[in-house]
Amino acid sequence: EPSERLVPVDPPSFYWVAGPSPDLCVSAGDGNPKESSPFINSTDLEKGRARPAQDRYLMDTSPMVSSLLSGLVNYTNLPQGSREHEEAENNDGAKKKPAPRMGTFMGVYLPCLQNIFGVILFLRLTWVVGIAGIMESFCMVILCCSCTMLTAISMSAIATNGVVPAGGSYYMISRSLGPEFGGAVGLCFYLGTTFAGAMYILGTIEILLAYIFPAMAIFEGEDASEEAAAMLNNMRVYGTCVLTCMATVVFVGVKYVNKFALVFLGCVILSILAIYAGVIKSAIDPPSFPICLLGNRTLSRHGFDICAKLVLEGNETVGSKLWELFCTSKFLNATCDEYFLRNNVTEIQGIPGAASALIKENLWSTYLTKGVIVEKQGVPSVALVDPVIDLDQPYVFSDMTSYFTLLVGIYFPSVTGIMAGSNRSGDLRDAQKSIPTGTILAIATTSAVYISSVILFGACIEGVVLRDKFGEAVNGNLVVGTLAWPSPWVIVIGSFFSTCGAISRDGIVPFLRVFGHGKANGEPTWALLLTACICEIGILIASLDEVAPILSMFFLMCYMFVNLACAVQTLLRTPNWRPRFRYYHWTLSFLGMSLCLALMFICSWYYALVAMLIAGLIYKYIEYRGAEKEWGDGIRGLSLSAARYALLRLEEGPPHTKNWRPQLLVLVRVDQEQNVVHPQLLSLTSQLKAGKGLTIVGSVLEGTFLDNHLQAQRAEESLRRLMEAEKVKGFCQVVISSNLRDGVSHLIQSSGLGGLQHNTVLVGWPRNWRQKEDHQTWRNFIELVRETTAGHLALLVTKNVAMFPGNQERFSEGHIDVWWIVHDGGMLMLLPFLLRHHKVWRKCKMRIFTVAQMDDNSIQMKKDLTTFLYHLRITAEVEVVEMHESDISAYTYEKTLVMEQRSEILKQMHLTKTEREREVQLIHDKNATAFASSPQSPSDEVETAPEKVHLTWTKEKAWALPRPLSLPTRFSSRNQSNVRRMHTAVKLNEVIVKKSQNAKLVLLNMPGPPRNRKGDENYMEFLEVLTEHLDRVMLVRGGGREVITIYS
Q1: Single pTM value for the model
Q2: How far is CA 956 from the centre of its chain?
């Protein structure tokens, strides 16, 4: 009878025709290639032609015997991507019918079982139980199985949040945490899988040489000390041969090995069942595996057959073969080992059985150091005073120093392999149902097997046999095999085929197969070669106990990031995070992540650091190369949440003076082709910021947004390219406005977000301001100065910006000169300090020039300023320049604010520490009010007589009350006032040029513009004359607050 029945379905429920668009429709036979459908499991429809509406059916498969047999025949342990490569080799691959979709049992549960069970269960679990004891082994198994179970819960949530194609863990993590994490973790998973291949090859060779064909050994040691090295060399030779064979098989096609997948899986299950059968049998009728003890020391069965000192040959009593191993001859008068003579030989049962009270003896740990003889507790023994141990004597020796963390590293690979289900989601009928169910059931099954095995091994097998890693005390049998029923060979052959199956699964199907393409037939030749080389590294290590912790690291790192991905997505509550698997919680994911991290460092802290370093390097490499993919990953959501939180925190109040740094708004012009006119401004920005703090590069286009939005986009692209070239980390903003004046005002007012706003504006000096057609440029510039003052923003104006150095230039010597005429919050001090952090200015020295009047004490001023700079931790040469009051009177419009600031700063030098700390906030408050109320116009001198100004360091006058200054009558007219200001500019300029003509950069105070706008042109002329004959000038105007402090 047919195993399927056909259920007719209405056409609308079978196809979704979205409006008139033909892209999502499947036509009835035009044969044209269709766009990939966005719907799940639509591939079957798209590969063949659509049938007429009346013939459309859905298949409802009945769970009959024929279906089960069909599933077993089609069982494969290859992930989806590898099988696609195999099918692509055949020309008729496209014509083949798609493989039957698998359910939970065949598609997830069995592959996970086959991946999890492996070489450690058969070769090392008995030894782990013997060394660590039942209690610690139980904790170890619970710890590792909990780790994989929690990871499986997180993985199930991710895997059921949409379709997971080939790529497994790489795909899940890259789509959840971004391509950098995906690449780093994907590589770790790849390295772990490749080293797992090496481990399984080494396990195969160990079973082959130790238990099946010992005579195949090429290298043999002359004594016991050389035997270990000879065994490692045998492992290297045979391991390399096996790896070469396997690589060749893959090159030809892994599908041929995959035909035996079911055989391999059957062997594993049969072996485990044989162990349980042996346990039951041992309770009823224990098997005979006698162990020979000399005193309390376990003897190796190699070299003797009878566990006795003497035997009867004819009528004569002579020494046995055991006697000959400890004595010079078989005769009774031979010279023998002292311990051998003093102690008796006894024989005990190696497997007393589950009914014995052995479980109490094996409950606690017995850790051994390398070269120590395996001894049985509680057996009488006559110890020697000064024992000398000869490794050539037939004892069972410990081959390595053991401790709990080492055992965790060796055991953990036996619980890996939980990704097998998620890797094959494309083969499943209902991946979102099968992956969680199959994976969690497989982990529960394997965990139950491991936990029961620990208890049963401890209850059935003698402790000295458990601690005998290679079964030397039981005639070289596999220890777990001695327990199996009906024969030890069931386990030996089963474990051998298990490791062979693991090789065909792990060492040969690299993670890179999914992505790599090599030859025309689709084989990723270079990826295969790379995998073989990495696998060879593991084989050259040659010790299974050394390789196991390495792959533990890589798997643990992979699992840790799976948990992190689930926790991040859950906590962020991303709208797209809607997994069908509901039984997860961010606390479980966080616990799983913590457990993975703890296990990494428990196994081996230095391996953990190396694994993290490798992952970190890959992460930074992908980040540096710039992963172009945008997958809507969780890290982007995390960044948004963190940015929002930080912005809200910044809103809490203004930054302390110690944290103040220039947050720049850089105003640049673009030409008709949307290219930046003065790119040197961005070079200076890079030198000033060194990638720290906020940088916004703004520009204004004239016109309307509807007409000019394309030009604005091009201008933004141009700004981004230039910022990237100049290594300026920040944002760009292009505003379209009806005129430049309003556009610049909008930028100054609205740039930034919340507490992350600019506090400094950087702009270039309008060079051609004197030209008539350019008169609006300087008007806009002066309005910019006024607006920055009103907004309490610092202003930096660069003159001769084309002469400023690029980022590739270097000054080998020179000076940065600061002309400190009035105190403006410390900007003049701070800017050279920041510039000298950059390699362009690093070798330049800083000089500070301050101006004194003729009646000031210049020597005291220099001392005070030197002390102040010392407290500021700034290294600079100090020079005081004396000038007549009439030469600098044009600066008198900088009145109240600068006087109060300077006086208070000078007073601080003479206050006690507590008084100074109390003054800090007071100064700031005074400054803020003074700044808002201070007159700022040089043209006001005509209307209101200015007060006496105290310049930078006038200690005696700083505390004196301001007194009116009577002006001569000849200055009563506006023209005469302008002449006086020009006189000031010329005189100051003469002094500055004389002292700083060869300086690499000159910084000086920028006076404020006049209140009366009729004097704007004179103000521009004043600044022009002030800075004549200087190559690079930066005019600095403070923002009305202290930006530098002497406090730590």
Answers
A1: 0.68
A2: 60
